[in-house]
Amino acid sequence: MNAPVPEKLRQAFEAIELNDRYTSTRGRAFMSGIHALVRLPMMQQMRDAQAGFRTGGFISGYRGSPLGTYDQALVAAGRFLKAHDIVFQPGVNEELAVDSVWGSQQLEFDPASKKLDGVFGIWYGKGPGVDRSADALKHANLSGTASLGGVIAVAGDDHLSKSSTLAHQSDHTFMACGLPVFAPSNVQDILDLGLHAFALSRYAGLWAGMKTVQDVVESAAAVDVDPQRVRIVLPEDFAMPTSGVHIRWPDEPLVQEARLMQVKWPAAIAYVRANRLNHNVIASANDRLGIIASGKSFGDVRQALRLLGLDDAQCRALGLRLHKVNVVWPLEPQSMREFALGLQEVLVVEEKRPIIELQLKDELYHCPPSERPRVVGKYDLPDIGDAGGEWSHTRPEQDWLLRANADLTPALIAQAIAKRLKYFGVPADVQALIDSRLSVILAKERAQSNAAAQSVDRLAWFCSGCPHNTSTRVPEGSTAMAGIGCHGMAVWMDRSTTSWSQMGGEGTPWIGQAPFTTRQHMFANLGDGTYFHSGLLAIRQSIAAGVNITYKVLYNDAVAMTGGQQVGERPEGHSVAQIAHSLRAEGVVKMVVVTDEPEKYSGRTVVSPTRAGHP
What is the pLDDT of residues 306-320, one digit of tens each? Predict the structure, then answer.
């Protein structure tokens, strides 16, 4: 522990600083995926500067729909971002943040007033924020990007519903909005694929989606930070129309739609093909079984192969080919056909509902039978008869090879790979190795399952001193509706609180219940952060419907559940007085400020006839 360190090594250690992740321009720096997302726009600006362009960046998202601690990391790195002309401006909610980023591309409508050659943008949001922003994302994507702009929409997906009311898979929303979907597998991928995403966005005039999950974005590694590490290749086999693909005004909706389908998507596919973003990682001439994976699942496949005792050389000897997909939609067809050529079967490993699997089947459907391998993924091949398609399985969980709900683990994937290898047949010694490894995997799973069954769950509770400890209680015989926020914990407490709504819908389910129940009144919990985001509209809807409801606007002056960020951008935050003024203007019949310090309001009327009192 106290062994002498060589002088050269000691000097190297002393030269390392935490801020190297933002300041180094060569070599390696240690950072998390969140830090990589902060570093990414700086690298793009440096690449532009080295190419002779003056560009800046604009980043926006909703602080209560965080991608990890991205917003806080951006604030902490403010001086580094400013040095690269990158502005971070949080949005009141997710879709307004999309509109703000869209505005960075609309600088092209007034070119004479531009300060820079172009501005690239990043929007971020958790899965629910992606869903609620679909309208804005569609409009912005159809409108397009600037030639020296480009936009990445980064989604933080919660496959296990650890911090969301629902499990999310944002790929489908991105696809519905027409955004190509990048899927980084590690921290280095966030930087490398991020630069490709900006380049594709500029080339094809599209917003680019990027899907991240906790296992990737909250991991950390030493990564190459050279801004020129990524070599961008522009397609030579795609003819861009003379009218181009970039944002313009005026622009008719049907013209935008035609440009999206006939030019932008084909241009994106051409970019993916030119840069070999989807490629074989393990391959040989005599391969029989192919495995295709992306994002987190690609790392899980690598781990699963290690669990089975199979290194790259053994995989080649067994005829196992591994393909990494970095852009999951639209799936570039040429690399898919090259990957599938000569294989007897393809195993698609992807979490949640199938995306790659369905596109692969569609692409291979028209191939000659000799060039069309079997494709398995979510469902295994039946012992007898025809498995049919996704909706042929009346009891899906009985037929799953790789489940579509929850997530996938390296252990689950290892079992699926072992099953498919056994189907093909492998040498006896290899089969013995796989069987012994599988027994260890299964034993660990059983032990973990037993430990989980014997463990005691400790439900979360309010922080000491939090006003929600008392403010979520209701009079005996009353009931309350829950909302999004840490006060949602009231649903498992003794608070007579039930149900959920999406963020901003708090209390409005009562509108559909009130005409059909003998209950005369309902309480609804609504945090001040949610109120600022969209909750005011829920109150407006309840007033418009004329229902008898009491909203408890639970005030703690923070977006508490996601890091305690300030509500709004004003130095004073969003005060009780401001909320009271807004509610009075909306037509609230009666308003009471409940506080354990009524003296704070002594001698001053917040908004007449509002009154203040003890809880």
Answer: 999 999 999 999 999
Cis previous bond, 396, omega within 30: no
Looking at residue 263, its pLDDT comes to 98
b/e for 19-54, b at 16 or more Cβ within 10 A? eebbebeeeebebbbbbbbbbbbbbbbbbbeeeeee
How does residue 371 score in pLDDT terms, banded at 50, 70 and 90?
A: confident
Residue 374 pairs in a beta bridge with: 345
Confidence of residue 466 (pLDDT cuts 50, 70, 90): confident
Among residues 38, 387, 357, 31, which one has the least CA distance to residue 186?
Answer: 31
Residue type for position 435: D
Helix intervals (H) in 67-133: 70-76, 78-83, 94-105, 127-132
Peptide bond into 250 cis (omega under 30): yes
Half-sphere exposure of 433 (CA within 13 A, CB side): 14
Count of residues in the chain:
615
Q: Report in angstroms the alpha-carbon separations of 521 from 138, 524, 591.
A: 39, 10, 16
Cβ neighbors of 571 (< 8 A, separation 6 or more) are none
Of the candidates 163, 164, 161, 173, the one whose C-alpha atom is nearest the C-alpha of residue 123 is: 173
Percent of the chain with pLDDT over 90: 71
Residues 191 and 195: their CA atoms lie apart, in Å, by 6
Alpha-carbon distance of 380 to 265, in angstroms, equals: 32
Whether 333 and 283 have beta carbons less than 8 Å apart is answered as: no
In 3-state terms, what secondary structure has residue 50? helix
How does residue 220 score in pLDDT terms, banded at 50, 70 and 90? very high
pLDDT band at residue 476 under the 50/70/90 scheme? very high
Tokens coding 138 = 């569609």
> What CA–CA distances, in Å, run from 107 to 117, 138, 145, 207?
10, 19, 10, 16
Q: With bands split at pLDDT 50, 70 and 90, how would you rate the model's confidence at 392? A: confident
pLDDT by residue (tens digit) across 138-164? 999 999 999 999 999 999 998 988 777
3-class DSSP state of 210: strand
Amino acid 66: pLDDT: 66
Phi then psi for residue 552, to 5 deg, are -95, 100
Q: Let me know: does 39 contact 190? Beta carbons within 8 Å.
A: no
DSSP 510-577: HHHHGGG-S---EEEEEEHHHIIIIIHHHHHHHHHHT--EEEEEE--SSBGGGT-B-SSSSTT-S-HH
Q: Check: CB of residue 408 under 8 Å from CB of residue 349.
A: yes
User: What's 175-207 look like in SS3?
Assistant: HHHCCCEECCCCHHHHHHHHHHHHHHHHHHCCE
The residues near 62 (Cβ < 8 Å, ≥ 6 apart) are 90, 91, 92, 93, 94, 97, 125, 129, 533
Torsion of CA 277, 280, 285, 289, to 10 degrees: -130
Residue range 50-65, pLDDT digits in tens? 999 999 999 999 987 7
